[in-house]
Amino acid sequence: MGTVYYDASMSLDGFITAANPRPEAGLGDDGLQLFEWINSADPRNREIVESGVRTGAVIVGRTTYDLSIPYWGADGPLGSARVPTVVISHSVPQDVEGNVYTFVNEVEAAFETAKQLAGDQDVSMVGSKIGQQFLKLGLIGEVSVHVVPVLFGSGTPLFGDLDSKQISLEPIEVIQTPDVIHLRFRVVK
Q1: Cystine design at 9: which of 124, 146, 149, 177 (Cβ 3.0–4.6 Å)?
Q2: Nearest to 7 by CA among 169, 128, 174, 144
Q3: Which residues make Cβ contacts (< 8 Å) with residue 95, sequence separation at least 6?
Q4: Does the reported pTM lie above 0.85?
């Protein structure tokens, strides 16, 4: 298996959604600006986007799934790459689109399922609560944060509930573009 990493775009004040996330606006009011850098022509941003190809499986929580499925559809979070996506949920929706989604009911089962589905490739995860749970359990090797130059003032915090657990990180890479600053850290074990 490759690296297990947590990946998120966030506002400068630490939010991965703007205020009021809901099914018709999964990232909240004006929250889509967190991902405008993905469509940038800047070659440094393109390289970050294309590095998602190394991902063999993605782990998400049910809230992320419910808010994102209108955008992802049957292909999952990485679009036409159709990367297997493991959803941690206590129930399975009746109208699951496509066959990229696997539902499990606990963090450890998600971790094992994703490792198996990814093979030698990386496993990534998105969503604040999922990332926090995996960090607390020591199951993440790297954290990638894409800091977008906007202040939301409220929304879903990236690291809002680590139960005061200190987690040391070692900087690996910093890439600054006009649209976003990409930060990559190794989790020190």
Answers
A1: 146
A2: 144
A3: none
A4: yes
Superfamily of domain 4-177: Dihydrofolate Reductase, subunit A (3.40.430.10)
Cβ proximity of 23 and 142 under 8 Å: no
Q: Facing residues of 19 across strands?
A: none
Residue 62, both tokens: 């049910």
Q: Report pLDDT digits (tens) over 24-50.
A: 898 999 999 999 999 999 999 988 888
CA dihedral sign, ordered 168, 14, 144, 64: positive
Q: Tell me the three state secondary structure of residue 19.
A: coil
What region, left, alpha or beta, does residue 98 occupy, with left being phi > 0 and alpha being psi -120 to 50 degrees? left
Token pair listed for 66: 């419910």
Q: Which two tokens stand for residue 131?
A: 């990332």
Domain ranges of the chain: 4-177
The whole-number pLDDT of residue 10 equals: 96
